[in-house]
Write a structure and sequence with these properties.
Structural class: mainly alpha
Number of helices: 8
Distance between the termini: 50 Å
Helix content: over 70%
Order of helices and strands: HHHHHHHH
Radius of gyration: 20 Å
């Protein structure tokens, strides 16, 4: 029994070494900041980590850092729309390989916002003014604008 345990531990440690990234120390700092309930510190650590990952071509790691950053911003702000619109603003500038994951995250957050505020959005009256701000319109305008952002930014 102990031989099997030693073998499993050896396999796990070898696997961890093989999958280690050059930014593991930075990820540990982010985890420590989150553990210590310091979201602003973690956000500050995630931006350079995100840039370094995208520069190195680690699309998944960069998307994870960006998503984590906006998730922390969403939790620290009382207004969830700041994080949702911030993510929507950064998706076009993200590397093409990371955009589908970021769009999915955006769509999930927007759906959660809409579900939570459905009563509020449903009571709005349609506006005739051409307004770029989708958050001030009625339900069809909100959903149409969300569809444009989530699906129509570019073809991937």
């Amino acid at each position: 029994m102990s031989r099997k345990l030693v073998f499993l531990l050896l396999c796990a440690s070898t696997s961890a070494l093989l999958h280690a990234t050059p930014r593991d120390a930075e990820w540990q700092q982010v985890a420590q900041a989150i553990h210590n309930d310091q979201p602003k510190t973690a956000i500050g650590l995630l931006k350079p980590l995100e840039s370094a990952a995208f520069t190195a071509g680690a699309w998944g790691e960069g998307a994870k850092a960006m998503a984590m950053r906006f998730s922390l911003e969403r939790k620290t702000n009382s207004d969830a729309l700041l994080a949702i619109t911030g993510l929507a603003d950064e998706i076009p500038g993200a590397p093409i390989a990371a955009r589908p994951v970021l769009r999915l995250l955006y769509a999930r957050w927007l759906a959660a916002y809409y579900d939570h505020h459905r009563w509020w959005v449903a009571e709005r009256t349609p506006t005739a003014a051409a307004n770029d701000e989708m958050w001030t319109g009625d339900a069809p305008r909100l959903l149409q604008a969300a569809n444009v952002i989530a699906g129509g930014m570019d073809a991937v």
